[in-house]
């Protein structure tokens, strides 16, 4: 709003395709969930690896037990009061120790491999989600551009129909043509008005669908970049090389198989014993001091090693191994299916892009031919050698050729974007 109370027109923001993708990644909830899942899996992998390392705790405890009125010689030096609870060592007991614990076993190593594979799979799934979101944004972006192009074409067609309607009315007034020519021109003008109204509606719907991914308020005014000259189609060898080296579906399926293999190893590890090591250093004595009565040393250390050998678990381990093997078989099937799907998608997408590219030249020639046909037909009508029906047909053919060209460009851009997504270049 200006100082004189006049409303200042705000220029709509120009959104490039790159910026649209960036905005969508910040706003789309499913992609945010994939990012969170990838970060969580990465933390899980770190925790599983950290579990392989020794843990250190500093334990502090004070214990008091009611005496039973007797004395015993179970203390460090001389006699001491006997506690009521036989599980306790003394009436007063102070513990202040640093404790280092380590468990060595195949299961811990296998679990770390499972977590690492799951983290790799989550990263691949994040890339799958990113490419899916990019595909959606690209499709909507080109849909907005295509709808705007068609709207402009129909606006031009309406102007052309209005001009021809004015011409027929003038010629009718001059008694050069029949009233039927005016009626035909008016019908054409009215049809173009309805077409433009529908085009405005479709363009607004396309803009809103894209704006949902880009802005907090979908009604925000914006504009897209004008269509550029279509990029060249890469060779089939280039596409195959890029797709085989950078495909997230294959990486996800492969990581899933690696996690399944490690899960089988983890399940089988239950057949083997685990070695638990403990080292403690500090005080565990009736006095909270480095020295006790008669200068007894309270400060010291202890070490412990424990080996637990599994003997019988009612076939639970066997069932867990079988369960993990079943999941591994599924992972193998998923991997081969992902490889087959990649091959099919590459062939389909490349064929679509190639066909769309080959039609661009024909579509451009059709527009030129239709434009020349309209020009000649209008000249013949002005000279009285053509009918109004011929002019209307030429106008319709020209609009159809322009619309087909706009659709062809959008088709090639979408197919090329899909190919770039498969190869990881977009």
Provide tags for this entry.
8 strands; elongated; disordered N terminus; 8 helices; 14% strand; single chain
Report the C-alpha radius of gyration, rounded.
39 Å
Strand order of the largest sheet: 2-5-7-8
**Which regions are unreliable across 5 or more consecutive residues at pLDDT < 50?**
1-5
Q: Given the C-alpha coordinates, what overall shape results?
A: elongated
Number of helices: 8
User: What is the structural class?
Assistant: alpha+beta
Helix content: 55-70%
Secondary-structure element order, N to C: EHHEEEEHHEHHEEHH
- Give the biggest beta sheet: 4 strands, antiparallel
The total count of strands amounts to 8
The amount of beta strand, in percent, is: 5-15%
How many angstroms does the end-to-end distance come to? Answer: 41 Å
Overall pLDDT metric: 86
Structure report:
It contains eight helices and eight strands, in the order βααββββααβααββαα. The protein has helices at 17-27, 29-50, 106-173, 179-214, 236-245, 248-268, 316-382, 388-423, and strands at residues 13-15, 55-64, 67-72, 80-83, 92-104, 222-224, 274-285, 299-308. The strands form three sheets. It has a four-stranded antiparallel β-sheet, with no helix packed on it. Strands 1-6 form a two-stranded parallel ribbon. It has a two-stranded antiparallel ribbon with strand order 3-4. α3 runs antiparallel to α8 (388-423). The chain is elongated, with a radius of gyration of 39 Å. The two termini are 41 Å apart.
How is this structure best summarized?
This protein is α+β, with helices and mostly antiparallel strands and 426 residues long.
